[in-house]
Design a protein that fits this description.
Layout: E1 6-10, H1 23-32, E2 38-42, H2 43-51, H3 54-74, H4 79-101, H5 107-116, H6 121-138, H7 154-172, E3 178-182, H8 189-202, E4 207-211, H9 213-217, H10 220-226, E5 234-236, H11 241-253, E6 263-265, H12 275-280, E7 307-310, E8 312-313, E9 335-336, H13 339-351, E10 356-360, H14 366-378, E11 384-389, H15 397-405, E12 408-415, H16 419-425, H17 431-443, E13 449-455, H18 462-473, E14 479-486, H19 494-497, E15 505-511, E16 523-526, H20 533-555, H21 560-565, E17 577-579, E18 583-587, H22 591-594, E19 599-603, E20 612-614, H23 616-625, H24 632-639, H25 642-654, E21 658-660
Parallel strand pairs: 1-2, 1-3, 3-4, 4-5, 7-10, 10-11, 11-12, 12-13, 13-14
Antiparallel strand pairs: 5-6, 8-9, 15-16, 17-21, 18-19, 19-20
Bound molecules: iron/sulfur cluster.
């Protein structure tokens, strides 16, 4: 098989693996349709696969076991020591679980499947992640002169160790002439530089270009400075397809490098000396601009993977004051893709047995959403699809009904329900409009949707945030999750560019210490009229509780309160339970914990702080009933005592260790 002309790399670290990032695949598909050959290379998955291999996990388990033994020996006198010990038990449980589910052939598929069904990969291996990649998550994009100082840090050495073999096999041995790095998240910037430097050391003539959202959002001045010394030949901003095609034509065919808009080059490129390459590539026009995952590159995808399908570029509203996404598209024009192309993509993936789709769109327009839904129904495509929506009365009940029938669910970027906050954010709607929009969603029976909320908008007060929270509580039939996050001031948003307009003062230090969540940086600011960080955290906690209530309601068929208040087995007669599937149990060795119980159980589909302590008798009951559907009466038959049985059910239910066996099975 011919070696590819280009390889498009997705560098580590990116902790969500079930959502495959499409750019390397789409760019490759585009290049392959235009006379050259390219392939995506997911170095993130390869690095994570190695970090979670038995070799690494066994080493980690050994270290975790000796930490645990050390803590047990030390006595656990203070509450702090007990908390550290409890955290070490959870960490140990996650590693053991990771080791248990490992199977060499389907390792990555298993991990993707787990994430798809709610067990986040990083939740299990979060400590590994923090340990190995924490530096990259916590470091802002550095000044140009500092980039090289990261090339020999321990994290860089590890990344090279994990990936050298793959780089040698897929790039160096094949002497790939053009390498692209696709960088959507800030934590990938430095690892991409480290890997580019390694490739350059072995192949001086290679052409390396960096592109993706992070490169697009960095300033031209910065990129021009960096390229003088970095192991990069070109930075590509905005869409990468045509610049990459032109670079290949230049490099391999010796064509003039004209039309280099959106490309910052280090030097003039060397012309190809391979005449056969020039003869091979005659086309000078792009054949297609819509892109797909190609079958041969989807081998490791789980069948549940939500497949990204481009729906539009740009946003049809583009006025939100906090938004930096709109700057990812040069002219900021909203361009929906033709519905036929979208349906053709879905039919193609459907023929490969994929049925779960995620529209790539800042916010889908009602008219376009309606046309897609109608076409899906007309073509009898039995799939599920998801998109971001903005609150928009254009989504009538009729449109939403047809979207619902076609398998639609959404994430709505409401952000707030308070009039002042909505005005500050310039969302373009008020509470009345939100209410009418939500009523439409309700009438159309759209369920299992998510709602985004921003906590701590400049000037927002605690009471205003509580108003939004109370409003959210009225719509738990429509939304299964309220995704609340703390406001970040991004440098390229209107608020970041004009802080004085919003009563903000940028702090001297410039950047915030908040987690970056893949962004370039968040600006630190003083907000005299706003809330303290502690208050923002309190609001977040309350959204966490609300999400938990919704989850528990579903898990126990709305009867958790009846179970908690039950005085006798008769009160929950007829209720049937099963144990959660993803449990890890371990015996406790320290006497401080033996008072609470002798075992710790962690439910891996719960949040990472989850753990429940149980005693020996409860552990024995668990063993007997492990694979059965059981009632309180069944537990009584084992314990010979009604109160003990009832306590067992209550404890397991409160600790999310069991769930209702059949959600249609109510308590009599
Ligand atoms: S936040 Fe969403 S709706 Fe608002 S401008 Fe940005 S992309 Fe558009």
């Amino acid at each position: 098989m011919k070696n590819p002309d280009a390889v498009i790399i997705f560098p580590p670290p990116m902790d969500r693996i079930a959502r495959v990032y499409p750019a390397p695949h789409f760019l490759s598909s585009f290049i392959n349709s235009n006379g050259f050959s390219a392939r995506p290379l997911d170095l993130n998955i390869i690095a994570l696969g190695k970090l979670t291999s038995p070799f690494f996990l066994d080493k980690e388990i050994k270290t975790a076991a000796s930490n645990r033994a050390r803590l047990e020996k030390s006595g656990l006198h203070s509450q702090k020591e007990k908390d550290v010990y409890a955290a070490s038990l959870r960490s140990f449980a996650r590693l053991l679980y990771g080791r248990r589910i490992h199977s060499d052939h389907h390792h990555i598929k298993n991990l993707m499947d787990m994430e798809n069904c709610g067990i986040r990969y990083t939740r299990i291996f979060i400590d590994l992640f923090k340990k190995y990649f924490g530096l990259f998550y916590n470091t802002n994009i550095p000044d140009s002169e500092d980039i090289k100082t990261f090339f020999s840090c321990p994290e860089a050495i590890l990344i090279k160790d994990l990936l050298n073999e793959e780089i040698q096999r897929s790039i160096i041995d094949k002497q790939i002439p053009v390498i692209g790095f696709s960088i959507p998240f800030a934590q990938q910037f430095l690892p991409a530089m480290i890997l580019a430097s390694e490739i350059k050391k072995k192949m001086q003539d290679v052409h390396i270009c960096f592109g993706g959202p992070i490169i697009t959002l960095l300033s031209e001045t910065y990129l021009k400075e960096v390229i003088k010394t970095a192991p990069v030949d070109a930075f590509v901003t905005y869409d990468g397809e045509m610049p990459l095609l032109r670079l290949l034509r230049y490099k391999l065919q010796g064509q003039a490098l004209d039309g280099t808009k959106n490309v910052i080059l280090r030097n003039a490129l060397n012309k190809s000396t391979d005449p056969s390459a020039a003869a091979r590539h005659q086309k000078d026009k792009a054949v297609h601009t819509h892109n797909r995952f190609q079958k041969e590159n989807m081998g490791y995808f789980s069948k549940n993977t939500p497949i990204p399908v481009t729906q539009s570029t740009g946003c049809y509203w583009k006025k939100c004051a906090f938004c930096d996404y709109i700057n990812l598209h040069k002219d900021k024009i909203y361009r929906p893709r033709p519905v036929n192309d979208i349906i053709a993509d879905i039919q193609y993936y459907h023929s490969l047995k994929f049925t779960n789709f995620r529209m790539l769109a800042e916010a889908i327009h009602p008219k376009h959403a309606n046309e897609i839904a109608t076409a899906l129904l007309d073509n009898n495509l039995n799939i599920s699809w998801h998109s971001f929506l903005r609150v928009d009365e254009g989504f009538t009940t009729k449109i939403l009904q047809s979207m619902e029938m076609s398998g639609f669910s959404c994430t709505v970027g409401m952000e707030s329900a308070n009039a002042c906050i909505l005005q500050t954010l310039n969302k373009g709607y008020d509470k009345k409009i939100i209410k009418r929009f939500f009523e439409n969603l309700r009438s159309a029976s759209l369920k299992n949707n998510h709602l985004n909320v921003i906590v701590g908008t400049p000037g927002a007060t605690y009471d205003q945030e509580l108003e939004t929270l109370a409003f959210c509580r009225e719509y738990t039939d429509i939304f299964t999750q309220f995704k609340a996050g703390i406001f970040t001031l991004t440098p390229t948003s209107d608020m970041g560019k004009n802080p004085h307009k919003y009563g903000l003062r940028i702090k001297e230090s410039g950047t915030d210490n908040q987690p970056l969540h893949g962004r370039i940086a968040s600006l630190a600011f003083d907000d005299p009229g706003g809330m303290t960080h502690e208050k923002k955290l309190r609001i977040l906690e309350r959204y966490g509780q609300l999400n938990k209530e919704i989850k528990n309601r579903k898990k126990f068929n709305g009867c958790l309160d009846i179970i908690s208040a039950a005085r006798s087995g008769a009160d929950i007669k007829g209720a049937a339970f099963v144990f959660e599937k993803f449990l890890v149990r371990q015996r406790l060795m320290h006497h401080a914990f033996k008072k609470q119980g002798e075992f710790m159980v962690a439910n891996m589909s719960e949040n990472r702080d989850h753990q429940v302590f149980i005693d020996k008798q409860q552990a024995d009951v668990m063993d007997i009933l492990r694979d059965s559907i059981f009632s309180c009466q069944d537990v009584m038959a084992i314990t010979q005592d009604e109160n003990t049985a009832l306590d067992f059910i209550k404890k397991m239910a409160a600790g999310n260790v069991i769930k209702a066996a059949d959600i249609d099975h109510g308590i009599q």
